[in-house]
């Protein structure tokens, strides 16, 4: 009898969306059905489709109130914050959220599919199902595409993101993925995976998507479904009809309360209720009724940072069921808005060149009670006294924290980074944090003898010395020539006193506008040779986020450089180039206004602890190559960037690579092939011809791209003096050796995705070695490079470069 009742309940839950669709009255049915050919656009009267009751809406929702960027989403339509419960994501595993601009369009096509198009008409998302007769937004919160016979072709309930709703049923293989933070819908660090033997909660490496060991689970036996029933209980059902609860239902009627359950950004699966009317039981806001696991802070993972990020520790606020992340003394958050990134030391770490006396003079151990990082141990002592434990950590340059247990007189030494930090009364250990006694007077000793230990350093030093001498001579000659040129052509230098003289489709901003947009130039995004870049937000209807480059010192050459950059960059338009939105030319103020890149520079992601996915690295390499092809061959005026490096490759919200910073670009007329100029660029990426009395061509960018391509392949910088193996310190040497020996797999050791694509790895290494040829005439053009990367042409074995010393400059 019990099993029969359970079976009936499950059947009712599964059939509820279709019952709502099929059994409606004619008037409601007409309101509910969305006919083929219907469409939605943001910022219009048809920006969403409502459910019959108006409780839910499907359509375009601004991202965090920013009306320049929209989600395709389902949300609660009658509450003040209009909580989003579903949003469109790309179909690939661990893909990013789909965000579009205000001129985008969603259409229910004549073939019975959903198609989302950007302002150019390019399809950016579809539901990969055709054959629907109509669509409907149901009162259950489920948006469905239905066939003419009433069967469901596609539904949001079967494509969940981070939230489930009453009557929703998940099957094995379906997953919930948290957001990265509550206001950023990108894939977060936690995953709920329904499997045949239960529901498992995993921490996930961002942005690679790698799953660590589970931190909590609900066991099952031949699991069939995860059910959120209408009375508020969430459970998994097994093949024998048994139920294993995840949360307990506390609401008896969905008529009085909205409900949802969300895998939140901190890894906690919380069940929420929201009273539809004023209630004595709950305020008219989302309230937590149950959550799992009971204490997320104690959820330890063997690999990864833990809940709060490296060098941080976690505490659970019982009153509001929220986690709080904290930093130890003299540590601070890397990003206050994204505390999961962890904490950094606010001081110079202890040098291993200090002797014991100096170490004890400069550093001290600060005790903290009820705090522990259960991993990161590298040495253990027992039995030992507390004083001995502290002393051994103090004189050890690797030791960042000592942990002492009074119960058994055991001491552990821990090194950076610290993971899985927790604070609570249940922690019965004392930790000692190593910090400097006086930060202002902390010694920073450099052992110059290490420079003399390696002949490659002598080569580097000699090259830099010769290069510097040559540079000084070039600068002196350039000053004399430029002075003469200016005297003769002073009247020919274009003035920028009137913005109208720049006949460009760019917005001319006033200085006051940009000062207000940047909150008086508060938040610095980066600095460069020609200015400082600030983050800002325009006071327009869209609230557009911008990056403002302010050029502070304006000599005559700087004015010329400003004019060149505005005119050159203003004419460029390519998806792999950062777009210039406008400029300010007011008095002595010179500012450039660029589109804001939310994911910062490639440098931030490329050399971190977690590798970017191989497929993503491939797309980044292709994106940079295509951007350079545009600059070199498709612009009306050829642009040589001259400073291609990871810091100048920015990533948008979809991790699309965009080349930035044209402040150092040297422009050529279409009938010119080379130019002579002062040395530009960044050490490690500069082509050897900069140090020779030869002309500079677009091949300098090809060389720099070759360096970046090797860095993308191996996820390590082009020079890494900290590597133990001598032949691996210089990436170009090492890559060349690996290629010649037929062992490119060593370059991607530990990267399973890359190992599975060794033919592509070998092709990319060969392309990089062609780009790094010392003779620029032997390097391919960037167009040829893209063809080689795509596999469209046969790549002959690259010549063995005669020297890679220039790659160090």
UniProtKB/TrEMBL annotation:
Pfam family, one: B_lectin
Positions of transmembrane segments: 457-482
GO CC field: membrane
Membrane-related topology note: Single-pass type I membrane protein
Binding positions for ATP per the UniProt entry: 550
Enzyme Commission code: 2.7.11.1
Keywords carried by this UniProt record: ATP-binding, Disulfide bond, EGF-like domain, Glycoprotein, Kinase, Lectin, Membrane, Nucleotide-binding, Receptor, Serine/threonine-protein kinase, Signal, Transferase, Transmembrane, Transmembrane helix
GO BP of this protein: response to other organism
Catalysed reaction equations from the record: L-seryl-[protein] + ATP = O-phospho-L-seryl-[protein] + ADP + H(+); L-threonyl-[protein] + ATP = O-phospho-L-threonyl-[protein] + ADP + H(+)
PROSITE patterns per the UniProt record, alphabetical: BULB_LECTIN, PROTEIN_KINASE_ATP, PROTEIN_KINASE_DOM, PROTEIN_KINASE_ST
GO molecular function: ATP binding; carbohydrate binding; protein serine/threonine kinase activity
Domain Bulb-type lectin: 31-158
Boundaries of every Protein kinase domain copy: 519-805
SUPFAM superfamilies to which the protein is assigned, alphabetical: alpha-D-mannose-specific plant lectins (SSF51110), Protein kinase-like (PK-like) (SSF56112)
Signal peptide: 1-30
Main location: membrane
Keyword Disulfide bond assigned: yes
Subcellular location: Membrane
Family in the record: Belongs to the protein kinase superfamily. Ser/Thr protein kinase family.
Name the record gives this protein: Receptor-like serine/threonine-protein kinase
Organism of provenance: Digitaria exilis
């Amino acid at each position: 009898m019990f099993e029969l009742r359970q079976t009936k309940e499950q059947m009712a839950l599964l059939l509820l969306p279709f019952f709502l669709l099929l059994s409606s009255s004619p008037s409601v049915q007409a309101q509910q059905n969305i006919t083929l050919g219907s469409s939605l656009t943001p910022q219009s009267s048809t920006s969403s489709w409502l459910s019959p009751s108006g409780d839910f809406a499907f359509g375009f929702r601004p991202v965090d109130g920013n009306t320049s960027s929209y989600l395709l989403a389902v949300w609660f339509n009658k509450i003040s914050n209009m909580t989003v419960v579903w949003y469109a994501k790309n179909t690939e595993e661990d893909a990013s959220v789909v965000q579009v601009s205000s001129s985008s369009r969603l259409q229910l096509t004549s073939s019975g599919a959903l198609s989302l198009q950007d302002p150019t008409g390019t399809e950016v998302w579809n539901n990969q199902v055709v054959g629907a007769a109509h669509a409907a937004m149901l009162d259950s919160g489920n948006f469905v595409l239905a066939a003419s016979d009433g069967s469901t072709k596609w539904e949001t309930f079967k494509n969940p993101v981070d939230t489930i709703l009453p009557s929703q049923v998940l099957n094995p293989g379906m997953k919930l993925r948290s957001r990265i933070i509550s206001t950023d819908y990108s894939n977060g660090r936690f995953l709920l995976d329904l499997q045949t033997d239960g529901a498992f909660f995993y921490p996930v490496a961002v942005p690679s998507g790698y799953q660590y060991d589970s931190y909590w689970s609900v066991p099952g036996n031949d699991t069939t479904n995860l059910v959120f029933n209408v009375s508020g209980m969430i459970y998994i059902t097994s093949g024998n009809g048994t139920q294993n609860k995840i949360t307990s239902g506390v609401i008896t009627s969905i008529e009085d309360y909205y409900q949802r359950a969300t895998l939140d950004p901190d890894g906690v699966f919380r069940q929420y209720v929201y009273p539809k009317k004023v209630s004595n039981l709950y305020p008219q806001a989302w309230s937590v009724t149950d959550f799992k696991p009971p204490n997320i802070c104690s959820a330890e993972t063997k690999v990864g940072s833990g809940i709060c990020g490296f060098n941080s520790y976690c505490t659970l606020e019982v009153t509001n069921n929220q986690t709080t992340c904290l930093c130890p003394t003299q540590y601070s958050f890397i990003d206050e808005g994204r505390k999961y990134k962890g904490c950094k030391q606010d001081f110079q770490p202890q040098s291993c060149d200090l002797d014991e006396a100096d170490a004890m003079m400069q550093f001290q151990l600060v005790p903290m009670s009820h705090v522990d990082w259960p991993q990161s141990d590298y040495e253990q002592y027992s039995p030992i006294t507390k004083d001995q434990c502290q002393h051994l950590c103090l004189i050890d340059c690797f030791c960042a924290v000592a942990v002492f247990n009074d119960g058994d007189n055991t001491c552990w030494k821990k090194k950076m980074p610290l993971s899985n930090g927790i604070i609570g009364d249940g922690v019965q250990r004392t930790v000692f944090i190593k910090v400097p006694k006086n930060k202002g007077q902390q010694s920073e000793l450099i052992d110059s003898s290490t420079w003399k230990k390696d002949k490659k350093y002598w080569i580097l030093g000699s090259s830099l010395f010769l290069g510097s001498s040559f540079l000084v001579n070039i600068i002196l000659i350039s000053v004399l020539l430029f002075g003469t040129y200016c005297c003769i052509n002073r009247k020919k230098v274009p003035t920028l006193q009137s913005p109208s003289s720049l006949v460009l489709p760019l917005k001319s901003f006033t200085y006051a506008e940009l000062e207000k947009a940047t909150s008086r130039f508060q938040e610095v995004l980066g600095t460069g040779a020609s200015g400082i870049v600030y983050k800002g937000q325009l006071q327009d209807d869209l609230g557009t986020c911008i990056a403002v480059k302010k050029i502070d010192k304006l000599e005559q050459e700087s004015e010329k450089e400003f004019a060149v950059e505005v005119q050159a960059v203003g004419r460029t338009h390519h998806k792999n180039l950062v777009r210039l939105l406008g400029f300010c030319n007011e008095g002595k103020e010179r500012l450039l206004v660029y589109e804001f890149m939310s994911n910062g520079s490639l440098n931030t992601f490329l050399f971190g602890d977690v590798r970017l996915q191989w497929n993503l690295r491939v797309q980044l390499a292709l994106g940079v190559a295509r951007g350079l092809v545009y600059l070199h061959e498709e612009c009306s005026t050829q642009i040589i960037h001259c400073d291609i490096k990871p810091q100048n490759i920015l990533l948008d919200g979809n991790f699309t690579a965009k080349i930035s910073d044209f402040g150092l670009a040297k422009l050529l007329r279409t009938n010119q092939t080379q130019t002579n100029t002062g040395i530009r660029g960044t050490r490690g990426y500069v082509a050897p011809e900069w140090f020779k009395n030869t002309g500079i061509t677009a091949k300098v960018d090809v060389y720099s791209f070759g360096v970046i391509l090797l860095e993308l392949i191996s996820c390590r910088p082009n020079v890494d003096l900290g590597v133990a193996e001598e032949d691996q310190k210089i990436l170009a040497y090492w890559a060349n050796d690996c290629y010649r020996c037929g062992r490119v797999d060593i370059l991607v050791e530990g990267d399973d995705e890359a190992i599975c694509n060794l033919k592509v790895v070998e092709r990319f290494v060969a392309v990089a070695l062609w780009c790094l040829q010392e003779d620029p005439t032997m390097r391919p053009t960037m167009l040829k490079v893209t063809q080689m990367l795509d596999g469209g042409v046969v790549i002959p074995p690259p010549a063995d470069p005669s020297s890679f010393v220039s790659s160090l400059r």
